[in-house]
Amino acid sequence: MKERVKSWILALLVLSSLIESYYLIYRLPGSDTAVLSKNLYVKTDNMGPEEKVEDLLYPDKMIIHLGDSKHTLFYPSSTFYNLILNRLKGRGFESFQRRSVQDFDWSKLRSENPGIELSYGAGIPVTLLQRVMQLTPDSLFAGESIDRIWIYNLKNDSKAHALFFSTRGDIVYEAAKADLTVQDVQQHVDFGKNWTPYTTINGDYYVPDSNVTIVEAEIPSDMYTIEQMQRNLFRDAGSTRYIREKDGSEIYTDSKRSLQVDQEQNWMSYSDPTALPVGESTPAKDVLEAVDFVNKHGGWSGSYRLAAAKETSLDQLAATEEGIEERLISFQQYYGSYPYGSYPIMNKPQLQYGVINLDLQQGTVSSYERSLMYVDESKAIKKIVELSGGEVLKNQLVQIGKASAVKDLAPAYVPGIKGDKLQLHPVWKVTLSDGTILTLN
């Protein structure tokens, strides 16, 4: 019996020794262990939800032509915008015929014929547009990018017409077959009859005849930490070193990639010059790659829309090493909700916020820029305000237009900081022909 007890005691001592050895190896500071590695290779932080590219592809505005020189506008998230867009997504368009813009009398078409005009800003590749609309393009049309779609009725014509505008500016594609009746188009147009009337100025932009209702907001904000961004962007966050520049900016690098942080602007710029090109790229492929990159490296802190997918200019292209093709992909953040509409948040020198920019070389992300600020939308304090319209706004635009012609007018938000809150102030965003952007409030 004594021998059995001694054997049990000895076994316990051996087990205790093994446990203590394991603890010393895997818990003491400085040990090169699996536990320490876990701290170095933290799972990518979920700073925001992932998005499907389809959710980032929508018009920045919807122009309703009522006929008799009457018009109105619907913006994202507003009641009739959502209704009309969802209906159009289920309609088919095919048999595209290429035509010159000179074949149409646009002023007459705009003023006399009921129709719906969808504006896509800088444009969207047809192969992406296929993801949100039922299109059957031929090879020629499939290679285009589209910045406008115009669906309309003609007097004494039994079928609806649909035009798709190339971003090149001189070509439109008409769908010979459109799964829409004249009655469908008229029903959509009728949604705008009791909405705020707008007057067009040479077809370039539209001015509301009365004030426009919009939401102003003050939202609690916080910051993503530098540690979070390092874990999201570097394979081994523990291997980065810190450099402080003379201008006050901070740089974190693993000798291949770099993360530059501007604490005053709450802005980060990530660069990976060693990114290996994947070969042939197209605007559509690059947009998909950019969306995937953001999904995997932080996610989306708010609602965004694809704003640009443009190639580097020829002069810049010639200056790049070996003439590698570059493309800038930009996503514009929007704020607002049903039924008042959603509008872009302007990026400004004093506070960089509201955009995510990515540069791609041959289909691979080489740089990535975004704000480090995020907000808690559930705690937003909102109030309804009005942007001036009518003669007051028209007179202001006339004065502005004396220096350079006004090319676009749209509601937008100017961001500001008040303590730990982000303020979003509604303004009129005025774009001039020389590219200058002004605000009126």
Automatic annotation (TrEMBL):
Coiled coil: none annotated. Transmembrane segments: none annotated. Residues 3-432 form the Regulatory protein YycH domain. It comes from the Bacteria. CDD domains: YycH_N. This is Regulatory protein YycH domain-containing protein. It comes from Paenibacillus wynnii.
